[in-house]
Specification:
CATH superfamily of the largest domain: Glycoside hydrolase, family 3, N-terminal domain
Radius of gyration: 27 Å
Distance between the termini: 46 Å
Shape: globular
Structural class: alpha/beta
Number of strands: 28
Bound molecules: 2-acetamido-2-deoxy-beta-D-glucopyranose
Largest sheet: 6 strands, mixed
CATH class of the largest domain: Alpha Beta
Length: 874
């Protein structure tokens, strides 16, 4: 995240208090600082030292180049690479210091996962949840490429996406829409495709937020409050929340952002088990780890725990010109408390990543300012006195990306119900269109900062995961353009004077919004606290009123996640329901493409739609409490979303993966080929690590961080690596530092589950390949999605969800009668469970007892293969 005004910084710092119904004058500071104990059994063990980067052969060339540079860097240049220059201290939401002697500029980091934030002439793509609903790997990749091209064109080195945490554990969670859906494999595939696409353009992707970040309220720790603790057992961490991070690291992601919250009572920004142990050792991550904005709460502690970059660089109170790192990290290195080789590893990781994506060659400098849209302005708005200059060059980076933006939005559209084939509409159907969600925002398309309002058609959630709209095609515009006979009632109160003819089709638009915690919209502080899982603005009443008057009602829903449809879904006149998710700038065009039948809908639900909110496990509700630290314990374990509904035997309203078409498909002729037999429980032994760079361990002379004497204009409040009295810092005795318990500088033995980026490469051996034939059995062209779910045998002696999505494939457009053979591959890891005792992935030997199901949703599985047995219809 990041923000655009000083006011939002202040509101962010105080929001943990103001969001609770407590009179601040009665607050005892001792109560605020009190920590509720982490439940028995949950703990975050120490894991030191940080494993060094550079041992993976894919990165060898980049590390060799980085070594050549870093070995020549002064201490000041090294510190510059690790620390942001301060909030509002440059064009981007965050930038590091520079090392001009080596051609390394201030490295620019920018939001967001759906487009370049707070600028102009950019594309506002559909967000993650919409991308997930396409179930289309090619579109996932193509959108990633387009995002990367736009970032590069603006001079953004690091574009902060994709999002895979939140994973979607809590249906009311505010930022679920930034990720791809409530399933680890869907998140993993969405993220890997996005990363590969983005990074193919030379832009560094950021996989975020690591980890267990499942609600907005009380997420942040600060000097006055404790962010919540997500208490997650080891198996659940591995099989659900870590899964997409592992696949993203395997895809070569260049950076990972840590989350605000704690895990097992230890802040993610300085949790050594998570960063050193899980991410850098087990997953073999070679890039750099960056904080979320102002998530750092300690200097030495975070350095030792494996953090590599502090953003935006500020300390406990932003804009005061101090930092947990910057000059303080200079001190910690000079006094020996932070080992020089830890600093060298931080810097090598950052510089190697910069080389890996070719940013040393012809990478543009930022040509925009995320602080203002004016041509000229303050170059450092956070400074006391800033120089003024040209800050915006208005570079148009949109190219033809509207095409992929529209294709994603269109192919995500999910048809839940279509009685009597009311859809598609005809051009001359008599349409009566209702709801403000069909129209525009009367105050202007970008009138609410970071989309912090719900006015007009909902095309993005709110917060830092947004971008400004270059234009917006509303449903009203697009329908008016396509239909010869449409009347619009852009109101959320059903008009009393509407006359209904028997042939009329009423099209009712409703929505449900959510976003990030630093903005509250209509009482919802990010999470859907007040609105719950119901349509906003009396949308349910609007549908009911239309259904009373008209006999043919089509409901179009723009939503961040599941909503409860029970108030109207079974009314006889509600014939069709369309989820258009969050479509971005091409909202109207993508919708009419489907409503009027130019394309059949081909989206599928990236989450379950329940009948009642009480059908979810109790433990996935939001937690809010005035004092102490929220202990959010993931007691439901692996049983979230459809995994829960299946095990609790609750039939939802619509299952995960559901989505109809204007045609019909059948899936037949399953075949299964064994590729690499699972001839042992555990994968083959991991490869050893290659050598990592070694530098001189002589602590540099303090003079390397003295203020420059010539040609230097200091910007007040800007964060520098320099010290007033560097030699004083060098005189302290490092052995007197109270290191965390378990601290060590002796490397741990390489974990057996590791061995390459993502983990042991043998985990990605293809175990089985499954073919099915997908045939269009209806009378219109369309695309189908084949979804593959695995059922693991009870012989693994672990309580495992009955069905888990592991693969999917979307067909090309099939004409009536036409078919396509779809091939889906399963890795060893896809069939494994995490063995907490052995600390490795365990598979059923020979695949004994494994069943592989393929169908069009988790509730509609038409074929099954038993490994070692038959394949046939289910
Ligand atoms: C959290 O605690 C659980 C229970 O002790 C443990 O299995 C798990 O590994 C811990 N996770 C982290 C990241 O510390
Ligand atoms: C680093 O220093 C070595 C030895 O002085 C020199 O050969 C090399 O060119 C330098 N590399 C860079 C990138 O400055
Ligand atoms: C550190 O970065 C700042 C900001 O970009 C720059 O002014 C300064 O010269 C850099 N220091 C060194 C030693 O390169
Ligand atoms: C070294 O400096 C750091 C940063 O100021 C400080 O936190 C730490 O306590 C110092 N170490 C010693 C032994 O004084
Ligand atoms: C801004 O971007 C354009 C196009 O990518 C590039 O030609 C130009 O050099 C950039 N401006 C700066 C200051 O680097
Ligand atoms: C609508 O158009 C179709 C042809 O596309 C025509 O058959 C039908 O009669 C028209 N209906 C009306 C009410 O004009
Ligand atoms: C300082 O800047 C001036 C003018 O840009 C330049 O001529 C001079 O060489 C610089 N001095 C140093 C020590 O870099
Ligand atoms: C540093 O402190 C430790 C313990 O306080 C002491 O044993 C050691 O002699 C000191 N070393 C120096 C160089 O002062
Ligand atoms: C599966 O389909 C692929 C082409 O899609 C084909 O090459 C392969 O032979 C098929 N395998 C089986 C077992 O039918
Ligand atoms: C699938 O569709 C084909 C073509 O319509 C038909 O022959 C076949 O019986 C169908 N199979 C199933 C299992 O519905």
């Amino acid at each position: 995240m990041a923000f655009i005004t000083c006011l939002t910084v202040v509101s962010l710092l105080v929001s943990p208090i103001t969001s609770s119904p407590v009179d601040p004058s009665h607050v005892d500071p001792a109560d605020i600082l009190k920590r509720d104990p982490v439940p028995a059994g949950y703990q975050s063990p120490p894991y030191y030292p940080t494993p060094k980067g550079g041992w993976v052969s894919d990165w060898a060339e980049a590390y060799a180049k980085a070594y050549d540079v870093v070995s020549n860097m002064t201490l000041a240049e090294k510190i510059n690479m690790t620390t942001g220059t301060g909030i509002f201290m440059g064009p981007c939401v965050g930038q590091t210091g520079s090392a001009e002697r080596f051609g390394i500029p201030n490295i620019c980091l920018m939001d967001s996962p759906l487009g370049i934030r707070n600028t102009d002439h950019n594309t506002a793509f559909p967000p993650g949840i919409t991308v997930g609903a396409t179930f289309d790997k090619d579109l996932m990749y193509a959108r990633g490429v387009a995002l990367g091209e736009e970032a590069r064109g603006k001079g953004v080195n690091v574009l902060m996406g994709p999002v895979v945490a939140p994973l979607g554990r809590k249906p009311r969670g505010g930022r679920n829409w930034e990720g791809f859906g409530a399933d680890p494999s869907l998140q993993a595939i969405g993220a890997a495709q996005t990363i590969k696409g983005m990074q193919s353009t030379g832009v560094i992707a950021t996989l975020k937020h690591f980890i267990g970040y499942e609600q907005e309220e009380d997420r942040m720790s600060s000097i006055i409050t404790q962010g919540y603790s997500s208490n997650i057992d080891d198996r659940t961490l591995h099989e659900l929340y870590l899964w997409p991070f592992a696949e993203g690291v395997k895809a070569g992601v260049g950076s990972v952002m840590i989350a605000y919250n704690d895990v097992n009572g230890s802040a993610c920004s300085q949790n050594s088990k998570l960063i050193n142990g899980v991410l850098k050792d087990e997953l073999g991550f070679q890039g750099f780890v960056v904080t979320d904005w102002l998530a750092q709460i300690g200097g030495v502690s975070s350095a030792l725990a494996g953090l590599d970059m502090s953003m935006p660089g500020d300390g406990a109170v932003p804009l005061f010109g101090d930092s947990y790192w910057g000059s303080d990290l200079s001190k910690s290195v000079l006094n020996g408390t932070v080992p020089l080789d830890r600093l060298n590893d931080m810097v090598t990781r950052i510089v190697a990543t910069w080389f890996k994506f070719g940013q040393d060659k012809d990478f543009p400098l930022p040509n925009f300012s995320s602080n203002t849209l004016d041509r000229t302005g303050e170059i450092y708005p956070g400074a006391l006195f800033s120089p003024i200059g040209i800050v915006n060059q208005y570079v148009n980076v949109q190219a033809n990306h509207n095409i992929v933006a529209r294709a994603v939005a269109r192919d995500a559209i999910t048809l839940l119900k279509n009685d009597h084939n009311i859809l598609p509409l005809k051009r001359n159907d008599s349409l009566k269109v209702f709801g403000t969600d069909a129209g525009g925002n009367p105050d202007g398309i970008n009138s609410c900062s970071d989309h912090g309002c719900d006015k007009g058609v909902l095309v993005e959630g709110w917060g830092s995961g947004t971008s400004r709209l270059p234009y917006l095609i509303t449903p009203q515009d697009a329908i008016a353009n396509r239909s010869s006979n449409a009347k619009f009632y852009i109101t959320d109160t059903f008009p009393s004077d509407v006359t209904a003819n028997s042939n009329d089709v009423a099209v009712v638009f409703i929505n449900s919004d959510s976003g990030e915690n630093y903005i509250t919209v209509e009482g919802n502080p990010g999470d859907r606290t007040v609105s719950g899982l119901y349509a906003w603005h009396n949308g349910d009443e609007l549908v009911q009123a239309a259904a009373e008057k008209f006999s043919k009602v089509v409901v179009v829903v723009h939503t961040v996640g599941p909503i409860i449809l029970e108030k109207w879904i079974d009314l006889p006149s509600v014939k069709s329901v369309v989820f258009a998710h969050l479509p971005g700038q091409e909202a109207g065009n993508s919708l009419v493409d489907v409503l009027f039948g130019d394309y059949s809908p081909s989206g599928h639900l990236p989450y379950t739609i329940p009948r009642n909110e009480s059908d979810y496990p109790k433990s996935v509700g939001l937690i809010n409490q005035p004092f102490g630290q929220i202990q959010d314990t993931f007691t439901e374990g692996l049983y979230i979303d459809y995994r829960h509904f299946q095990s609790a035997n609750i039939t939802p309203r619509y299952p995960f993966g559901h989505g109809l078409s204007y045609t019909t498909f059948n899936i037949t002729e399953p075949t299964l080929s064994v590729i690499t037999p699972l001839d042992s429980e555990y994968p083959a032994a991991r490869p050893a690590k290659n050598a990592t760079p070694t530098y001189s361990d002589v602590i540099p002379p303090p003079s390397e961080v003295a203020w420059p004497k010539t040609n230097f204009t200091r910007i007040w409040r800007y964060l520098y690596p320099y010290l007033d009295n560097p030699s004083a810092a060098a005189k302290t005795n490092s052995t007197s530092y109270p290191y965390p318990s378990g601290y060590s500088t002796i490397p741990k033995p390489a974990p057996r589950a590791g061995g390459a980026e993502g983990g042991n490469p043998a985990l990605w051996d293809i175990a089985y390949s499954v073919n099915v034939t997908v045939r269009n059995t209806g009378s219109r062209p369309g695309k189908a999605v084949a979804q593959l779910y695995v059922e693991l045998p009870s012989s693994l002696a672990l309580d495992t969800p009955r069905l888990q999505l592991r693969q999917f494939e979307k067909t090309r457009t099939l004409a009536p009668g036409q078919s396509e053979v779809v091939t889906m591959e399963l890795t060893r890891k896809d069939l494994s469970v995490w063995d907490v005792v052995v600390q490795d992935w365990k598979a059923p030997v020979g695949g004994e007892g494994v069943k592989i199901w393929v169908g069009q949703s988790v509730g509609d599985l038409s074929v099954v293969c038993e490994v070692g047995g038959e394949c046939g219809s289910a």
